[in-house]
Amino acid sequence: MTGSGLTERLPRLLTLVPYLLARPGVPLADVAADFGIGERQLRRDLELLWMCGLPGYGPGDLVDLSFAGDTVTVTEDAGLRRPLRLTTAEGTALLVALRTLGDLPGMVDTDAVRRATAKIERAVGDAGAAGVAVEVSRQEQATTTAVREALEAGRALTIRYYTAGRDAVTLRTVDPMRLLLVEGRGYLEAWCRRAGAVRLFRLDRVDEVVVLDEPAAAPPDAEPTDLSAGVFPARPEHGSAVLLLEPWARWVAEYYPVEQVVELPPDPADERNGHDHGPDGRPGRRADGRARVLMRYADPAWLVRLVLGLGGGARILEPPELAAEVARRASEALVRTDGGTRGVGPG
Amino acid sequence: MSSARAERLVNLVLCLLSTRQFLPAEKIRATVPGYADAATDEAFFRMFERDKTELRELGVPLETGRNSVFDTTDGYRIARQDYELGEIDLEPDEAAAVALAARLWDTPGLAGAAHGAVLKLRAAGVEVDETRTGPVQPRVRAVEPAFGPLLAAVQAGQVVSFPHRRGGPTGEISRRTVEPWGVVSARGRWYLVGHDRDRADVRSFRLSRIAGPVSTLGPPGAVQVPPGMDLLAVVDRGVALPPVIGTARLWVAAGRAHGLRRMGRVLRPLRLPGDHPDADGDELEIDLRSLDIVARWIAGYGPEVVVLHPPELSTAVRQAWAAAAAAHAGALVAPDHVAATAGDVAR
């Protein structure tokens, strides 16, 4: 991992000469950082290049370098004036990334992205961009644009935000910190004055945004969110519930983060098993059994809504008070729907 | 040892770049430093074969040919215009877009390749500052262990085989053999798209369902991607919402069911008949997709919603509530006895 293996070193050696040629007198430390190697490895690379050259191998044929203090300059390039063209892997990584950015109007300057993409496609030749594709959510362009403008201008924002956990819409004044794309979705990271904390706001749940005249003023100790464990990491203050999932509701365990999955045999008494449909209308399979899972939730009302919607596909085993809440709300809904629709509309 | 080989390879590249004539192997052996170390003809040819392979893997366009019909053996050269990265000149906003693109990948294979591409651009004299992170930070990550091997197989055009878990975390595992066409990120999740040899059809596989190491079968270059293949369309077929098949009308309680309100249109204020305490609300119109999906969305809101039209939706929602009530009936009667014991689960 020191960068001395041949498959890393050879491309680096071939890139170093034109790189240095483009930057006479560049500090060695900068070069090492750019190439992701230590200064000792860089010096070994330069010593090696200094031994290389064109047939004849006399003075003037060899790569020549001059060192001044901690900087280096190429004085003879032995014909290595340009870098090798991009490999397919490099071309793909860069071009697919650019195309992804091109699908993020509002978040980035897509005009500049398009121009850069065209230029790079021209320069890389055959190293196309096949085999990788990224689809991003792109419905909330106006919101994203307003957020980006506020970030660039350093202004606070008022947003009307839908909190799915509590099924509530609230007005909040926030100090924007970052505009993020995580797991294919756009987020505003901001200091929420109402919560007195840093919050991530899903852009597709921001229903209205007003850029204020007042400057953004997140407290200096407002820490950017650590996203290494995803957008919804388990927190100690979250509740946890044990759910029993019927085969046709098993998708829940994949769609939402769950822990402690226990496989259970199919319920032979259950006639829905085997011919019901999955969440997306596709047929379920007979062989699947039930599963018991532990699920974290930030808000109990969210879990109740989920289980109520699953209509018996999930049973809350723990905590009992949430199970009771599901039963209570289901009964209330039945009473209301049986008595409530009379006389309203064609029904 | 490795240093000597790296030096020999750099010299070989310089030598072959500087010649217009095809150089026969014997000439190369006599000219390029390092080959003189080969004690026998056999040792030399072994060395030379390995070096040629190394250069080709690196993307060096090594040409083979003869200068005239009188030549008895093949010679070698590198055409400069095929070797060198084309001229490229980026405006500052285009360079910023490229820098943002290079930082997009939060996954080892693609991040390394994108960095390699940027190094080459910088060696071509384009200033791309990868280190300056602004407040806009789009990232695409892949944490699945299968990602790296699958990307490599896609790029090498090599058939893969892997254990695949069907339908969720505890589903049944089967081995699949796939001609990989591409890796696709959609809605924040990664999929492999390709021709499933076992099913003899096009399939997409969620990477999170690949339950073990990916192995390659057969030689590189064996996979033929059908021309005009739209990878995203294949994945979308599997995960997209069903199309809109009509509209539904609901009563939603005043100031409640915001999740439903956000996906529909409020038609007018509406008060439910009868003497319910919370009978005030609105008439809401929403798009009707698959009955199952819309019923699930609606049922979650319990007594905050009443389906007015169509009757089959009303029936589906009513059934969901009845099933949820039945599954949780025990919780209402005697909450103390609903502990999540194994006996309870098996009941």
Automatic annotation (TrEMBL), chain A:
Record's compositionally biased regions (Basic and acidic residues): 269-287
Pfam families xref list: HTH_PafC, WCX, WYL
Which positions fall inside the WCX domain?
285-334
InterPro entries listed in its UniProt record: CBASS_pafABC_assoc_protein, PafC-like, PafC_HTH, WCX_dom, WYL_dom
- The signal peptide stretch is none
- Where the record annotates domain PafC HTH, the positions are 8-122
- The segment(s) forming the WYL domain are 144-210
Cite the residue spans of the region called Disordered: 264-287
User: PANTHER family, alphabetically?
Assistant: PROTEIN PAFC, PTHR34580
Question: Which protein, by its recorded name, is this?
Answer: WYL domain-containing protein
Origin species, per record, is: Pseudonocardia charpentierae
Automatic annotation (TrEMBL), chain B:
State the superkingdom: Bacteria
Q: Where is the WYL domain?
A: 146-211
Q: Which InterPro entries match?
A: CBASS_pafABC_assoc_protein, WCX_dom, WYL_dom
Any idea where the WCX domain is? Answer: 247-325
Name of protein: WYL domain-containing protein
Q: Which organism is it from?
A: Pseudonocardia charpentierae
